[in-house]
Structures are given as C-alpha cells and as structure tokens.
Please model this.
Amino acid sequence: MFLRTLSGRFLLLTIIFVMVAEVMIFVPSVARFREDYLRERLERSQIASLTLLAAPDAMISLELQEELLDNAEVLNIVLNRNEMRELVLASPMPAAVDMTVDLRQNGAWTLIRDAFDTLINGSDRVIRVVGAPVKGGGTLIEATMAEGPLRNAMVGYGWRIYWLSLGLSLAIGLMLFVATRKLIGAPISRVVTQIQNFQSAPEDAKKIIQPKAPVTELYQAEQALAEMETQLNQSLLERKRLVALGGAVSKISHDLRNILTTTQLLADRMEISDDPRIQRIAPKLVNSLSRAVNLCERTLSFGKAEEPTPELSKFPILEMFEDVAEAERLAIGDGDVQIDIAADPTLSCWADKDQVFRVVSNLTRNARQVLTARGTSGLITLDASEDGQSFVMRISDNGPGMPPRARENMFKPFEGSARVGGSGLGLAISAELIQNHNGTLELIQSDDMGTIFEIRLPKAG
Model:
C-alpha cells in the first residue's frame, strides 16, 4: 500500500537511481582498486629487493627472504637493474604462471576488463605483474603472486561499496521522502480533501479552495481548481434561482391565464359595439389577449419541460411584422422612435407563427427600449427576404450598439441584458425558439452605427 503512494514510489525510485549511480561509479573504482593493489605489491617487492642489495655480499638468510616475500605478498621478485635481469627473491611456485599483467599499459577499458576477469576467474591463478620501479630503482620490476588474495580484496572492497551505497541511498531517499511529503504530498492531499469537501456541498461558497501551495505548479493547479469551483458554484446557484423562478412563473401564469380568459370574454362582447373605433380596436385586442392566453399556456408547459415543439403553418411575414409594429407603436406613444417595415406582401414562410412573433416582438421591444432610453429620435427596421434555402428576417436599429459584456453573454439567461434592470431572458428564450425550428439567430452587427439581428428559418423540414 505504501508503494502505491507518490511519496513511497518516489522513495523507491530514489533508492534505485542512487544504486544505479553507485554501480556506475563502482565499475571504474574497483578497476582502480585492483591497479593500486598491484602497484602496492610492486613497491613492496622493490623495497624487499633493496633490502637484499643492501646486505653484505647480497646474502641474507632464508628466513629473512621468506619474511620479505610474505610482507610483499608475492612469490618471487625479478629486478632489471644496470642492464641486468636478476631474480632477487624466490620461493617455491605452487603452479605455472597463468597470465602476465603489465601495469605500464593501463588504459581505462583494459583496467575494467582485467578487473572483471579477476573477479570471475582469479580464484586459483598465478599471475606475473610487470611495472616500472619507483624513484629510478631500476628499469623494470616483476613480481609473481597468487591472484586469489587480490580477488578476495576486490570482493571485500565491493561489499563495502555496496553497503555504503545502500546506506547513502536510504539516507538520501529518506530526506527526499520527507521533503516530497512536505512540498508535494501534503499539498496534493489538501487538494484531494478539499475536492471531497466541495463535492459534499458544491453550493457552499465557503468550501471553494483558497490557493496557497508553496510550489508554483501546485499553486497554479489550485488556482485553476478554485476558478472551476467558483464557476460551478455560480452555475448551481443560477440553476437554483432558475428553478425557483420557473416555479413562480408557472404559478403566476396559471392565475394570469384565468384573468386573461375572463378579459377575453369581455373583449368578445366589445366586437358587437356600434362604435367604429371600438370595432377597429376590438379585433386587435382579442388577438393580443389570445396571444397572452396562449403564452400563459406555454409558460406552464415550459415550467414542466422545455419550449414545446413548433406547430408549423404558413403565414405572411408582412402581416406578422405589422402586428409587432402596431403593438410597439402603442408603447412608443408620442416618442421619436419610428418603426419601418420592408417585406414583400406575398412572402410567406412555414413556421410556428406565435413563436416567431415572440422572437421578433422581443427583438423589436429591446431595440425600442434602448432607443427610448436615449431620449433622441431613432429608427427600427423590420426586413424580410428569402434565398434558396432560408427565410431571412432582420431586425435593425440605429442605436448605440450592445455593451461588450452583453455581446459575450447575449444568449445566457440573466447575463445577456443590454439595459439596466433587464433579466437577459428574452434573447435566451428567442434563441431556443429559433433553434427548435432548426434555424439560427445571430447578431450581425452591433456598434456605433446600430444593431442588426438576423433570423434564418429553413424552407424545408
């Protein structure tokens, strides 16, 4: 279980990497140890030979010869001096010489190769070691020796290196383990714990993480997590408000529908009046009330699900534009905002008339409210045309254009309003209604020259 943690794996990898590094160091170091061992034996052999040469008549006892050879750890010594090659000290040979090691040719790869050869095959061999005497004590010195003690010394040296490497690996790994736990493991655990706490109550803004990791990368990760949690928290709160608003609107629409139904019955009786003005206004009033009742019905269904599927029918676009314009002109009253209509009287489209009316009316109302708020003259144009695949409607005005924030969030509920006090629901609902027709609602232009919205409704399907 421990090795499945980040710190545990980091500790294991540290030990492995340090051991690998020590192995890479061990190979040349053991080769150098072998070379130093052999050179030391040659130096001892040279000292032993000088002892013999210093004796009267170059004669010493056998016991002293054996002691000198034992001290030098060699079997015999040959010294080239004054152009003479002389066997200085000798003892019985246990076996024939198996190989010669010339320390005058000690390239790196040669030393490494010979070191491994000694470790593998050096148990019972007898070798001759050749080198140059120190301090000019001759031209060449040779020593014959058993290779077994050399191999044993190399094995002992290797084990010392191994235990030292293991101790260093454990010590370094432990230090790195503690540092990793403090600098990386603890912040990651904190992030995991915070995610679990936020998951239990994502609507609680107090559970949003506060970035404070000491490592730059982890701090950036905490910042990104905090931004994500903030956006999720706001989205959940907005959804909660929308649910509450949907319930309230459904209740209001239910009562408003009953009120409008009664008003519609009264408007029906107005149609039988003899007053010409009432006869002219009554049909429009009845149509407006019918739309209001229908809107309440659909609002109730919207509170249960989404906008209903469009009920397609063929209707003249010009007639719909005129209804929208007349309703807005009543709202304008004596204001300086004008509404112009540019549509072919013969142009008709297949769509849900009530839903398209809602969209065009909403866009026209938005333009009228912006122009009215300016207190200067303005112009709204309702234009309709067609191409090979679509019916095209454009609602344009010569207002100041939409603010940047409104353009960025224009189809998001509660965020896309271009005026103070607006809810931003109109454009969101309008976009959904047009999408249900497999059409598009796009902002074509919005700058100091004015704003243009374009509706495209497909001809087929």
